[in-house]
């Protein structure tokens, strides 16, 4: 069994059944605080389901998730909300809210009994709006934003939570190339320096479809297929042509970037017929 990380994430033997089918099947993930991990895998592999289990939003059939050595299943809801943020693709609880108000929702678990934000809460929201280049959008209604702009608001809200564990479901979806790089650079920065208001250096786990972004920015990759971890470790060791063909059904040439030394994946065709 995976030993719970004393500072960081340790998920062990997680399993979850949906509509009679095992969609997460004995998953182990370990990630230290201050690290960035990418969760990879084809459509339907179980990435979103796994993020929900780790966030404590769905209860696993078996297995456990430890954060900072504590079993998250035993934390109170508010305590869990302080420690874990999940940035999903759509914010569903933001009718008629401005961008700033949506980002400020990230502070909710930290507010006192009167529910009133203090100077520090405002400062964290300001910093998160600035970090995600959203200052000019602060007063815009969230509902009027483009897909990529909303994606950045979702990230800013999760950052405003200053969590110990920052989970992201396809945070680069809808983003132009500059915004994609900006997002991954920001995630690396936050993992290294901690939250906007001096919060802890979080463990970052992001589901990504772009293997090149994962190869460039992740310390560690976890590859999921049919609900199981089929490979995990250093991107340069894991992301081989053979694994990419087996898991994604595409041919790829994997090169080494002359400056970064990281893998560059050039896709060349389909290895298996579409299903
Ligand atoms: N509400 C549901 N009822 C039944 N099956 C579901 C439900 N939601 C998801 N599934 C199934 O669970 C499996 C895992 O889905 P999940 O959304 O976790 O995959 P994913 O890796 O995030 O996929 P994608 O890359 O397409 O977002 C899939 O086979 C999916 O069809």
Task: Please render the helix and strand layout as text.
Blueprint: E1 8-18, E2 21-32, E3 36-40, H1 47-55, E4 62-67, E5 70-71, H2 77-83, E6 84-87, H3 99-104, H4 119-131, H5 147-160, E7 165-169, H6 177-193, E8 203-207, H7 211-217, E9 220-225, E10 228-233, H8 235-238, H9 241-248, E11 250-256, E12 263-270
Parallel strand pairs: 3-8, 3-9, 6-7, 7-8
Antiparallel strand pairs: 1-2, 1-4, 4-5, 9-10, 11-12
Helix pairs in contact: 4-5
Bound molecules: adenosine-5'-triphosphate (ATP).
Pfam families: ABC_tran (PF00005)
InterPro entries: AAA+_ATPase, ABC_transporter-like_ATP-bd, ABC_transporter-like_CS, ABC_trnsptr_F420-0_ATP-bd_pred, P-loop_NTPase
Domain ABC transporter: 9-251
Give an overview in words.
The chain has 275 residues and is an alpha/beta fold. It has 9 helices and 12 strands. The strands form 3 sheets. It has a 6-stranded mixed β-sheet, with helices on both faces. The protein has a 4-stranded antiparallel β-sheet with strand order 2-1-4-5. The radius of gyration is 19 Å and the shape is globular. The two termini are 35 Å apart. Bound molecules: adenosine-5'-triphosphate.
């Amino acid at each position: 069994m995976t030993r719970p990380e004393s500072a960081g994430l340790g998920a062990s033997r997680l399993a979850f059944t949906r509509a009679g089918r095992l969609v997460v099947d004995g998953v182990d993930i370990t990630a230290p605080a201050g690290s960035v991990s990418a969760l990879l895998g084809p459509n339907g592999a179980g990435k979103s389901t796994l993020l929900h289990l780790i966030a404590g939003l769905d209860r696993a059939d078996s297995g456990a998730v430890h954060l900072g050595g504590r079993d998250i299943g035993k934390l109170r809801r508010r305590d869990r909300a302080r420690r874990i943020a999940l940035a999903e693709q759509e914010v569903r609880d933001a009718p008629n809210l401005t961008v700033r108000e949506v980002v400020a929702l990230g502070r909710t678990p930290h507010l006192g009994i009167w529910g009133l934000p203090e100077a520090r809460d405002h400062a964290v929201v300001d910093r998160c709006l600035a970090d995600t280049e959203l200052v000019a959008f602060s007063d815009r209604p969230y509902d009027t934003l483009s897909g990529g702009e909303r994606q950045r608001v979702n990230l800013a809200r999760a950052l405003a939570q200053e969590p110990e564990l920052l989970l992201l479901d396809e945070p680069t979806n809808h983003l132009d190339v500059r915004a994609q790089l900006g997002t991954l650079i920001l995630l690396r920065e936050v993992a290294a320096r901690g939250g906007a208001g001096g919060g802890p250096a979080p463990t970052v786990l992001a589901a990504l479809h772009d293997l090149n972004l994962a190869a460039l920015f992740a310390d560690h990759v976890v590859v999921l297929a049919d609900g199981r971890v089929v490979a995990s470790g250093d991107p340069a060791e894991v992301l081989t042509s053979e694994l990419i063909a087996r898991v994604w059904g595409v041919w790829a040439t994997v090169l080494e970037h002359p400056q970064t030394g990281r893998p560059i994946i050039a896709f060349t065709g389909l290895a298996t017929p579409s299903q």
